[in-house]
């Protein structure tokens, strides 16, 4: 059975996991990996030492959330969600940018002081650029997202809700996070879909 190596916070791991669940990939199992401490199980399948990584029955390992999502579309039992549509790819890319900026802010903090809670990095030029990406990206997502979810969760929906939840998880109560009523409505409307319900991030 295919095994997804992930952790409980990574937005990239959540995107991969949600895509696998929503596509109804059979017999999926999940293994928690520690991506910051050279976890041997993770390094054995992904020399980058990053989550997510999906290991297939024959040992083939697929890293990178979008490639795992693509594989999910190919092998899942659910009807395809139309992920090749340019509009879906465009919004998914925007949401990935928000996830990436948020993760890079945390990584920047870790590089500067070894401490995720130390915000000194955020005031640096790169830190400000990452912050701007999160603020503008969330606002644009709110304006562009299709707030009415379909039968399947497409990649735009999965990535946008994941970005919203990840920013909330990592920057709780931050006054710079824009209002995103349409995104929040989408999150509420899809909260009990297994792909989101079973992959909610926690610290
Ligand atoms: N582009 C990759 C990003 C994966 C990634 O950066 N994962 C982070 C967790 S959020 C990680 O494992 N970081 C450990 C490291 O950079 O060494 C994807 O889309 O899957």
Automatic annotation (TrEMBL):
Residues 1-80 form the GST N-terminal domain. It holds the Pfam family GST_N_2. PROSITE patterns: GST_NTER. This is GST N-terminal domain-containing protein.
């Amino acid at each position: 059975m295919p095994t997804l190596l992930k952790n409980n916070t990574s937005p990239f791991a959540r995107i991969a996991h949600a895509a696998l669940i929503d596509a109804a990939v059979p017999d999926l199992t999940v293994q928690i990996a520690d991506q910051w401490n050279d976890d041997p199980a993770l390094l054995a399948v992904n020399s980058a030492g990053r989550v997510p990584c999906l290991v297939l029955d024959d040992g083939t390992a697929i890293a990178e959330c979008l490639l795992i999502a693509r594989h999910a579309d190919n092998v899942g039992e659910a009807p395809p969600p139309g992920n090749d549509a340019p509009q879906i790819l465009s919004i998914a890319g925007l949401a990935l940018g928000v996830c990436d900026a948020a993760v890079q802010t945390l990584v920047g903090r870790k590089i500067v002081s070894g401490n995720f809670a130390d915000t000194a990095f955020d005031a640096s030029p790169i830190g400000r650029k990452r912050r701007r990406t999160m603020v503008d990206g969330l606002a644009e997502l709110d304006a562009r997202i299709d707030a009415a979810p379909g039968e399947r969760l497409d990649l735009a929906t999965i990535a946008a809700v994941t970005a919203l939840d990840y920013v909330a998880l990592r920057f709780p109560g931050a006054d710079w996070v824009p209002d995103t009523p349409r995104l929040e409505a989408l999150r509420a409307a899809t909260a009990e879909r297994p792909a989101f319900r079973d992959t909610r991030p926690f610290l």
